Amino acid sequence: MSPLHALAIFAAGIAAGTINTVVGSGTLITFPVLLAFGYPPVVANVSNTVGLVPGSVSGAWGYREELAGQRRRGLPLAIASVLGAIGGSAALLTLPPSAFKKIVPVFIAIALVLIVIQPRLSAWLRTRRGSGAPRSEHAGPAATLATFASGLYGGYFGAAQGILLISILGLSLDDDLQRLNALKVVLAGLVNFVAGVVFVIFAHISWLPALLIAVGSTLGGVVGAHGGRRLPPWALRLVIIAVGIVAIVRLL
């Protein structure tokens, strides 16, 4: 690996850690970069998953004040996320690499659509919140099942998992959006951690890019927790959409 490649992967890790903490979809930064440098898709995916775990930890630490008092309602969602992550990571390792190449472009396309419609989705959530629609301080069975499905997706390929989670939490829980975002960071990070453990045991990890992403995402998690909310949403979406299109083209 050349120094320029190493620097690019490290920078992508910083960007991914920041984006994951603020909204999610950091994988759409790091995954295309690894593909561009010649890593096979499955190796790129598992190495990226392992590398992003420390960024989730630093992001959750930055949100520790917003996480206060959420242990009771977060535990069932955490269990659902863990079970989903085990299922999703097992599917990745069980299905042939050719299936990953066919499935992931669809996942990325769905993730890009979610990113594009996120402003309208957020506006709809605000309208629903103001309309007096029933919500609770604790997640019900439907939200828990949806969180499990999100974990399945995240264990297989995690792009836009954060957007899925914040939508699920926003629809089902009656709380401030920043507190919900803090819970989202923990749940998405837990999925990455569990899937990462599975990959370390059973898959081939390319450790140098994983380490570069890990260091970069740790810094990015701190940046995202403290200052990432100041990033212009439209600019962030444009960057993610651009790299997502690159990833789809690369895979196809």
How would you describe this protein?
With 252 residues, the protein is an all-alpha fold. It has one domain. The chain has helices at residues 3-22, 27-36, 41-62, 64-67, 71-94, 97-130, 141-156, 161-172, 177-202, 207-226, 233-251. Helix 1 (3-22) crosses helix 10 (207-226), helix 3 crosses helix 9 (177-202) and helix 7 runs antiparallel to helix 8 (161-172). The longest helix is centred in the middle third of the chain and has 34 residues, at 97-130. The chain starts with a helix and ends with a helix. The mean pLDDT is 85.
Short account of what is shown:
This protein has eleven helices and no strands. With 252 residues, the protein is mainly alpha-helical.
